[in-house]
């Protein structure tokens, strides 16, 4: 259910309930952003504060309440929410903590949160454990602390579960216009995705940034991504939880189920949401998207008056989906006319310093770099803090080139602190991006030039398993996969002390494996290339009571891994990568959520280092890529049919030959 958040997020009448000190802070925060509506203070003692009207109870307020900030203890909060809902208020911010985020300390906290949601009914609430929000477009702040935001006419929206991160982001001095700063708290009723989706209805929002600790239900995220794609509004995320420690911190702080990072990345990829790893890159990416939106391509032009800077920036795109295209003949002609014969013409361009402070000459030298085929042109300029005005020639040149060319143009300070705030605002007013940090600019450019590819299908859910998880023996696992169309080696299962006559029907060379072991290689439970003459001895030396004897697959070109793990937070995570005994060492993998499309799978395979082997490497034949994709699609089908029981599936290796692919080892665990 998507609730109507308009009254809550753009109120004209605010009630602050309880919390005298918090009330003073909220009044100050609202006035700082220019709020000119009515604020009521509700307190049993009818305290007067900062010139606001006081009331002893909600019933004493005659005006309809659009939004309330509830600053009372958690138990009282439930009753206040019920009273607000009964009065048809627009919504509330529930400040109190001690709900589901505290379940480790208080077993009743989850029940209390459920009562809070029930009390709210259809009235939207933010939180609990929520700091509130700032709406700089409509000059509203329901915010119990300092903030650094000012009224804007258009800007980006930022949503986070962390109040402290939200406070810090409001204090940014990078000339990024922030339209909304919203803290989401526990998301007991309204989720982060639902809030973001509501903000897409505001035409003044240019991009949305999401600091995500846990996703919860995936359906609202799919709806958000689809609506954002339809409206052309970019989404950028920081997702906490790459490390085990981060996942534990997330769970203890917000009670959100973080899940695996591979699952989180797969979900973000599926939704077309770009991911960054730190706050500076987060802000710079949002800023670029605010100014230019999506870039035409990942081709860059770089301008500097230093060979060292030109080399630095050339090295900085290594490993990124960005390039510095060679100069065209037309660019060379215009640059030669502007710079003369002594300057080596290249991209990145070192235009030397002899034209510095000659604004007309600088315009003539910079303009050819902002060519129509280039996605983003930038000049590297670090303003001296001793006298930034002395370099006004660069500012004026950038503004002139942007106005004349109408092409995306940025001024990049390699050191973020050397982009003065007043200069940044001046550049922004003229449509030039003031980039605070070269690395951050390149991250932003890569994201902005990346095509958005959305998979609207909701990922397969991973229901809770009943009972203990057990290993399915390999022979049975392969038989189940064979039923779904995967090729497996011909084989027999025998007791170690039994007759080997059945194995004589198999063609040597053979593979002998001990049964009931997940990691056979480490336990000496695999023998390869066994002939019929030495079969008896190989069987005797195997650990365990039963052995699996298979025909050995020969002619393999590449070994692949197909793995599926159950991720309670995100669904079933399908991982493809380089297989064999070096899987953990090579770590050449890509992950998806089940189900995904054949095209996505092929694109993922093409992005792996091992793909060069699949194409044929140094005279070896190429593999049958269609057969590889058929095998992966068959695994997805198996997962869908066994979702209620499957805990883990791994085929390693899947041996690919020029003609076929064979699952030579399979591990399945079920609940």
SSE layout and pairing:
Elements: H1 6-9, E1 13-17, H2 20-32, E2 38-42, E3 53-55, E4 67-70, H3 74-86, E5 92-94, H4 109-120, E6 125-126, E7 133-135, E8 140-142, E9 155-160, H5 163-170, E10 178-183, H6 192-199, E11 205-212, H7 219-231, E12 235-239, H8 244-254, H9 261-271, E13 274-276, H10 279-292, E14 300-304, H11 307-316, H12 329-339, E15 349-350, H13 359-366, E16 376-380, H14 392-405, E17 409-413, H15 421-429, E18 433-436, H16 438-448, E19 470-472, H17 474-482, E20 491-495, E21 510-514, E22 526-530, H18 535-541, E23 546-551, E24 558-567, E25 571-578, H19 583-586, E26 589-593, H20 598-606, H21 611-615, H22 625-641, E27 646-656, E28 661-663, E29 666-670
Parallel strand pairs: 1-2, 1-4, 2-3, 4-5, 5-6, 9-10, 9-11, 11-12, 12-13, 14-15, 14-16, 16-17, 17-18
Antiparallel strand pairs: 7-8, 7-10, 19-29, 20-23, 21-22, 21-23, 24-25, 24-27, 25-26, 27-28, 27-29
Number of domains: 5
Q: Counting H and I runs of at least 4 residues, what is the number of helices?
A: 22
Helix content: 25-40%
- Kindly state the mean pLDDT as a whole number? 91
Would you tell me which CATH topology of the largest domain applies? Answer: Rossmann fold
Name of the top-level CATH class of the largest domain:
Alpha Beta
What's the count of strands?
29
Strand content: 15-25%
What distance separates the N and C termini?
33 Å
**Structural classification:** alpha/beta
CATH homologous superfamily of the largest domain - what is it? Succinyl-CoA synthetase domains
């Amino acid at each position: 259910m998507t609730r109507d958040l308009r009254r809550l997020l753009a109120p004209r009448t605010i009630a602050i309930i309880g919390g005298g000190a918090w009330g003073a802070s909220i009044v100050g925060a609202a006035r700082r952003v220019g709020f000119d509506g009515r604020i009521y203070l509700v307190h049993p003692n009818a305290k007067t504060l900062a010139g606001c009207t006081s009331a002893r109870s909600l019933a004493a307020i005659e005006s309809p309440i659009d939004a309330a900030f509830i600053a009372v203890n958690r138990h009282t909060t439930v009753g206040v929410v019920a009273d607000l809902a009964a009065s048809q208020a627009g919504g509330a911010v529930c400040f109190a903590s001690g709900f589901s985020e505290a379940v480790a300390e208080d077993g009743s906290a989850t029940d209390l949160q459920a009562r809070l949601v029930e009390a709210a009914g259809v009235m939207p609430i933010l939180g609990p454990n929520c700091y509130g929000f700032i709406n700089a477009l409509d000059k509203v702040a329901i915010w119990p602390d300092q903030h650094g935001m000012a009224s804007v006419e258009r800007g980006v929206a930022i949503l986070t579960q962390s109040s402290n991160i939200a406070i810090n982001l409001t204090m940014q001095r990078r000339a990024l216009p922030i339209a909304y700063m919203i803290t989401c708290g526990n998301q007991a009723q309204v989720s982060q995705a639902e809030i973001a989706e509501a903000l897409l209805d505001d035409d003044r929002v240019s991009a949305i940034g999401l600091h995500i600790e846990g996703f919860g239900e995936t359906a609202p995220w799919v709806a958000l991504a689809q609506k954002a794609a339809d409206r052309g509004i970019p989404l950028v995320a920081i997702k906490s939880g790459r490390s085990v420690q981060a996942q534990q911190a997330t769970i203890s702080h917000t009670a959100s189920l973080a899940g695996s990072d591979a699952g989180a990345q797969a979900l973000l990829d599926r939704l077309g949401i770009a991911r960054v790893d730190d706050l500076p890159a987060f802000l710079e990416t949002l800023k670029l998207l605010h100014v230019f939106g999506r870039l035409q391509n990942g081709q860059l032009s770089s301008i500097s008056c230093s060979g060292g800077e030109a080399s630095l920036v050339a090295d900085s795109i290594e490993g990124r989906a960005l390039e510095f295209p060679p100069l065209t003949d037309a660019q060379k002609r215009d640059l030669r006319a502007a710079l003369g014969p002594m300057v080596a013409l290249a991209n990145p361009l070192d235009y030397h310093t002899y034209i510095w402070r000659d604004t007309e000459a600088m315009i003539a030298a910079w303009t050819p770099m902002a060519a129509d085929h280039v996605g983003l042109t930038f000049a590297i300029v670090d303003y001296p803090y001793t006298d930034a005005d002395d370099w006004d020639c660069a500012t004026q040149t950038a503004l002139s080139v942007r106005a004349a060319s109408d092409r995306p143009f940025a001024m990049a300070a390699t050191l973020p602190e050397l982009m003065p705030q007043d200069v940044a605002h001046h550049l922004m007013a003229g449509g030039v991006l003031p980039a605070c940090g070269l690395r951050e600019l390149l991250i932003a450019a890569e994201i902005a030039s990346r095509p958005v590819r959305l998979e609207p299908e909701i990922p397969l859910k991973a229901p809770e398993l009943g009972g203990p998880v057990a290993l399915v023996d390999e022979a049975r696992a392969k038989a189940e996969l064979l039923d779904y169309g995967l090729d497996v080696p011909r084989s027999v299962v025998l007791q170690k002390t039994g007759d080997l006559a059945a194995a004589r029907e198999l063609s040597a060379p053979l593979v002998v494996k001990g049964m009931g072991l997940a990691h056979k290689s480490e336990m000496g439970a695999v023998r390869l290339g066994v002939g019929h003459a030495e079969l008896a001895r190989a069987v005797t030396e195997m650990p365990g009571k039963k052995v699996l004897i298979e025909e050995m697959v020969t002619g393999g070109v590449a070994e692949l891994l197909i793995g599926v793990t159950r991720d309670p937070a995100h669904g079933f995570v399908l991982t493809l990568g380089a297989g064999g005994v070096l899987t953990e060492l090579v770590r050449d993998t890509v992950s998806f959520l089940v189900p995904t499309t054949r095209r996505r799978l092929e694109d993922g395979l093409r992005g792996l280092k091992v793909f060069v082997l699949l194409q044929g490497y140094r005279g070896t034949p190429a593999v049958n890529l269609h057969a590889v994709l058929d095998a992966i699609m068959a695994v997805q089908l198996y997962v869908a049919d066994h979702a209620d029981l499957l805990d883990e599936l791994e085929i390693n290796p899947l041996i690919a030959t020029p003609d076929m692919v064979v699952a030579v080892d399979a591990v399945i665990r079920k609940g």
